[in-house]
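In line with agreed milestones, work has continued on tokenised descriptions of protein folds. One protein thus recorded appears below exactly as we store it:

>
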Amino acid sequence: MNFIRGTVMAIVLLLQPIVLLFKLLFGRRAQDAPQQLQAINHSAIVPATVVADSEDGIKNSNNISQQSDATGSASSPSAPPAGSNSGDDDSISLPLPFAEYEVFLSFRGPDTRHQFTDILYRFLVRLKIRTFRDDDELRTGEGIWPNLVKAIGQSKIHVPVMSETYAHSKWCLMELSEMAKRRKQEKGHIILPIFYMTNPRDVRHQTGPYQSAFQQHDKDFDSGTVQEWRAALNEIGALKGWHVKSKDEQGAVSECVSDVVWSHLSKNDNFSDTDELVGIDDSVEAVVEKLSLDVGGAAMVGLHGLGGIGKTTIARAVYNKISARFDRRSFLENIRETQQQKDGGISLQKKLISNSMRIDYVAPINSVEEGRRIIQDRVSQFKVLIILDDVDESFKFEEILGNSGNFACGSRFIITSRNMKLLSTFNESRCKLYEVREMGPQLSLQLFCKYAFKTDSPPQDFTTLSEKIVTTAAGLPLTLKVVGSLLFREEKSIWEDKLSMLEKAPQKEVKERLKISYDALEYETKQIFLDVACFFIGMEMKIASYYWRDCKFHPVNSINILLQRSMLKIGDDNEFQMHDQMRDMGRAIVCEENIEEPWMRSRVWDDKEGTELLLNKKGSKQVKAVRADYHRSFLGGMKPGQFQNLPELRYFEAEFAEFSGDFNNLVPNLKWLRLHFHYNDGQEPTNFDMSNLLLILTCAYYILQMAKKLKVLDLSHCTSLIKLPDFPKSGSLEMLNLSAEIRSFASFTSMELDIGNLWNLKVLNLKECALKRVTGGTIGMLKCLEELDLTNLQCNNWKQRVVDIGELPSLKVLKTIGDEVESEGEGIEKLPPSLKVLHTSFRVANLSELLELEELVVENCDFGLEIPPVGDDTNANSTAHMWWKVSKLKSLTLHKTKFIVVAGTAPSFDQLRLPSSLTTLNISNCPYLEWIPTLENLNNLTELTITKCSKVLEVRGIQGLTSLQSLVIDDRDDLIHLCGLADLMRLKTFEIKESAPLSREALLLNDDSDDVFTPKIILYHIDELQGN
């Protein structure tokens, strides 16, 4: 399908007379493209999507596109790069302060200008990617070379289209040589080579058509220059790229390349936690030194410093650096915030146990004492690394974790806090202190520029302004990051205005400096920011979006803006995350609405203030959201009088609640109702208008019956649940969660789930449920369903209800792992081809048809995982034989499962291959697994783990893993074939536990090579090389 779509697009793009008609279509695709990419990256929103939302970004990208349409070239190399002052063509002048180009295209005009390069260029422009399209024929003199060097240096990604006569052009070879230099000298430059109608071997070795080109170059140029060109061809020709063998492939390859480019650029814009600070290496090394990793016993290091100064980032960098040395590890974030929640200590303990034991710990913990006992009994026996992030006086180490001295020898603890005195109280555990200080001027400028310009230094005409702004940040990384993000792609006049505002803010008031970013937001985005800061941290983005859409907001656009300005983050589970300084600033803004009278503010998030508001029957039309706590006065029910002054209430959350009396439609605008525990003595309230209610987290049946617009229903924590309610007959429900704690109640096993009115349902979570039966139809009738979790479901007739699951056209996520589903290898006869994530204990019957699948986890499957054999590429009628080539699978995990061949086939070992798209392969605890498919085609694989597979005697194709960064093989003493390790030039970690010494032959590149594999980091050293 991708091939056909790409080919059609190629034809369309080459039809010049109707190109204007298709521009409208391309514009729409450009807006849709980031959302398509979200699914690929398992991230709901990435900052790069903001490029498509920025008027300046669209305007200038369109200028480039228009210039291309008019002249046939994006930017003539004889013209200066965008942003230069020496050109006459204003249509491609980009005066905004950022790296002008993102992609540099190098190609030989006669070979590809009007074919492949033109198609690829239009794909890139369609995605609003700023592309410099070079053409060797358009160069008019040596004076253009400095501008070409500048364009190459500015571009993050270089795409040389190496065609048959590419090497005949000195310009192309000069560019290629410059690309190779940049790749070696500067981190972040990526080269994606295209081999167009030419053999990559000819490129690498300068044979074939490249040989004749160099015979002429040897006559015309000095030997040093020619040798430099040869070295560049050899280096870049060996990189992973695309081989275009026919014109029919041009469209498909162009689309694939543009997707990869977009993916790289998205990652560059979304800085990881360990990369967002510059110059932290010294701090990381200092903390590692204080941990004394080579010394026995347990040790503890405390990081202290101002909020927003980078304590968490340094702790995470240390965690990433040393975590592989430990048997178990856990990073507990935002402890101060978590402890303020109900049962916060228990929540921390559950997360610690889940992380450390590598399980989803769902068993109830009834008290902190019980949690501590479980940690001491089950976690402390391992050598653990535990990070306790952002603790305050409310955190008591021994109450939550127990005595640190009881943990296994070699365990380490890292604690971050703003309070040095608090960390000093841990001296009984010999806690060593490390102060995180403000950044110096040079490093501050570098960090600021990463967010303001996406480079390490400012453009010359912005240097003075940048230095002045950096001075106002007082060396605080969070302020530098937020202010830099705010000024990204803004005009100089905006910079001057913001500098004036920053200089007026008190030097020590971080909130005042951060607030400048908030003030620059539009009204709608401000409201969403304040909602997250007060109520929605940790909430899944999809759920909160229902609330905002009903408020006539546009959450996707607003969230994009907040992400781009570093005011918000999205976690791995699509939940909202926010730096505590940013959260505190948001809450302070709400408090300033009325400092003395909380009931006059828009949001009352403090549960004590919310409780006082209700008890004293206070309130105002300004109040939109309230959170209340348990109070004995509520035992008789929350009365109408307590809500009479809250006509605009949209959000209400209470720890314990029941309602009674005549409410006389007092809260007609209520959209969100969350009652952690609901008690009802049979006296239901009257005239309780729930017609606008969208989300309910309670088991109050009478509320469900009145909620005609209900979108989300979460009953996962309803401990008093006796029977399942009747769902709205309107069919409005889109998310239903019956998971978690309800499974522990015996009465639940007699309940029936009626899905007859759930035809609009998008998410159904039955994880850990124990149901008598499912009624009202089959799962296959829920045509809108996108996510279905049946993990450990116990239900008498569940197999009959999922027989037609393959008919679901929109299902993206399916989880069916559990004891109930593994018997006799039974499975669903056909899975929907739309699946992107599959976790199962089923037999996967039609794996070769799941071409959209990106994540596959198979656990406890007695039948095994069938691998379609490789077939003849010319067999167009057999998708199965091409599965390893066309699949989009990124991650494969096998646990207690074996590979098997498809019934009725007898392939050779070389015909059994996994998808080339794989980046992660984890095979663990598979005692009956006897063989693993060859890995030679997995050139995208970055992580490989093979553990506790005692019958596997060889791993073939290691030499093909050219992108591998992490290799883990443990609990083995008889692995005999592990050849090709010396080819793994990108390998950073190589972990071998309890393994016999590997022979020298196992570590050699090949039989006639003397190069021995030397990984950058050896976590488990090989003590002996036999035969050396």
